[in-house]
């Protein structure tokens, strides 16, 4: 089943269960997907939808940090709950060992010799780990391996 169909089905189930938090979060995700489709005049595939969901999770994590530093734990808790709902639709996250192994194989595959080849390595890695690992951490790991 396509990811968009899964989201729509879960939206119906959340409506029937009267789960306001889950329903609101799914609607938010569907709205972000629809906005991108309208802006770019395309129909998003699963990888592109996953990129939208990843962006939404990243935004929520940033908001949690800001709310907690401002002493607004109530708002931070809402954002954390939304992250949990969004992560239900994302693939299982990779372990540190799996990420490290993927980085090693990407460096070998792209025949990277130094920092100037970081773009090549990230180009190989991105489709493999999209939505399954924090790209910032992966980028740091690649940088460390190439240095």
Walk me through the structure.
With 147 residues, the protein is mainly alpha-helical. Helix content is 78%, strand content 0%. It has helices spanning 3-17, 20-40, 46-69, 73-87, 96-110, 118-129, 135-146. The longest helix is centred in the middle third of the chain and has 24 residues, at 46-69. The model has no long low-confidence stretch (mean pLDDT 91).
Short description:
It comes from Vibrio hippocampi. With 147 residues, the protein is mainly α.
Which helices and strands occur, and which strands form pairs?
Blueprint: H1 3-17, H2 20-40, H3 46-69, H4 73-87, H5 96-110, H6 118-129, H7 135-146
Average residue-wise pLDDT: 91
Helix/strand/pairing class, anyone?
Answer: mainly alpha
Helix fraction, binned, reads: over 70%
Please tally the β strands and state the result.
0
**Rg, Cα atoms, Å:** 18 Å
The H/E string reads HHHHHHH
Uncertain regions spanning at least 5 consecutive residues: none
- Distance, first to last CA: 42 Å
Number of helices: 7
Major beta sheet, specifics? none
Q: Note the beta-strand portion.
A: under 5%
């Amino acid at each position: 089943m396509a990811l968009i169909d899964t989201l729509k089905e879960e939206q119906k189930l959340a409506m029937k269960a009267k789960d306001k938090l889950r329903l609101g979060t799914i609607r938010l995700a569907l709205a972000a997907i629809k906005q991108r489709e309208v802006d770019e005049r395309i129909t998003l595939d699963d990888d592109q939808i996953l990129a939208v969901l990843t962006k939404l999770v990243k935004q929520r994590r940033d908001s949690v940090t800001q709310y907690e530093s401002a002493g607004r734990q109530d708002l931070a808790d809402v954002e954390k709950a939304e992250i949990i709902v969004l992560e239900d639709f994302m693939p299982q996250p990779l372990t540190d060992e799996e990420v490290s192994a993927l980085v090693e194989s990407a460096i070998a595959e792209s025949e990277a010799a130094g920092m100037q080849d970081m773009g090549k390595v990230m180009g190989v890695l991105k489709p493999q780990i999209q939505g399954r690992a924090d790209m910032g951490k992966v980028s740091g790991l690649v940088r460390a391996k190439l240095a």
